[in-house]
Amino acid sequence: MTETIRAGDQVLLALEDGKTFLIRIDRGKRHSSHRGTVDHDNVIGRDWGTTLTLNTGAAAFLLRPRWIDKMMKVHRRTNIMYPKDVAFLLADLDLGPGSRVIEIGSGSGAMTQALVGAVLPGGAVFSYDRREDFLELAERNCRLAGVRTGVEFRARGAGEELEPDVDAVFCDIPEPWVELQVIGEALRGSGRFAAADSEELERSIHSTGFFRQKAKSLKNCCTRLVQEHGGEVPTSMEALTALPGVGRKTANVIRAVAFGLPGIAVDTHCKRLSNRLELAVSTDPARIEACLARLYPESRWADVSRLFIWHGRYTCKARRPLCEQCSLADLCPFYHARDTESISCRPK
Ligand code: SF4
Prior knowledge:
Bound molecules: iron/sulfur cluster
Strand order of the largest sheet: 9-8-7-10-11
Number of domains: 3
CATH superfamily of the largest domain: Vaccinia Virus protein VP39
Helix content: 25-40%
Number of helices: 13
Order of helices and strands: EEEEEEHHEHEHEEHEHHHHHHHH
CATH class of the largest domain: Alpha Beta
Oligomer: single chain
Distance between the termini: 94 Å
């Protein structure tokens, strides 16, 4: 006997132009689209896969939604994993019926649905998020997709205890390294761990520019931190600059800001200002750093970086320095060397 569509079912309404809509069928409701209207009552009792004629005469196919349709059409407030990444992760985590898996970062619940689909029957998903609103959204999306068993949503802060004795952990949060200790404690022997892939990372840092290269460096850097430093960030200049994507500037920022150690970060602003003030005459950041380090005591190095960067960014700008507002004008060789006729910013 062919199974028919019932009230409460989710149906993928596919139109002839390729547009699809995931709708829940409820008695007395209607769904309107650019190609016409569907009465839900007219759908109930029909066979899956049949063709319906809309009020405009256009055809619509009544399809049983795949988990990929449900996943891609969740109500989202976060980026979601894309199907090819999900498929890879399910294989990489070796999930199957009976597996117990932890998800850190419920997000919109899209990945949760895929995890539940993989581990049932007999398995369980423990989905954690520190934000109650994300937990509610993920739970609601799962419920709408018909996922009612096999998952527990739990509120939890970073680094807090996890469900013990699991086969796999999937971590989809911006700082997975803070969870490594507790993940190790939760996993069974030979358990598997995976974190969000580069594309997810790229989407998160897109606005910073050069996001592809940065995502690659971040991923490689995290791998090296775990493999070579036990998940801890090293403090020495030598160890920091050996990490992928970390140069002297970044290393000095980490040393000064994260560890309170001496460090002068020479960025483009610090470089320009140092040259204009003739504190260092060089284009090489390492030489400028060395010059500034000789001029100021170690206890002031972090302040030197910060003040030079901010002054360069907002006053001693590259193209039109605001010399008339600059408190360093009297001391500045660049300012005094400029020809009065050609300098628009110089006070008359
Ligand atoms: S006087 Fe002008 S060039 Fe000199 S430091 Fe100030 S803003 Fe820069």
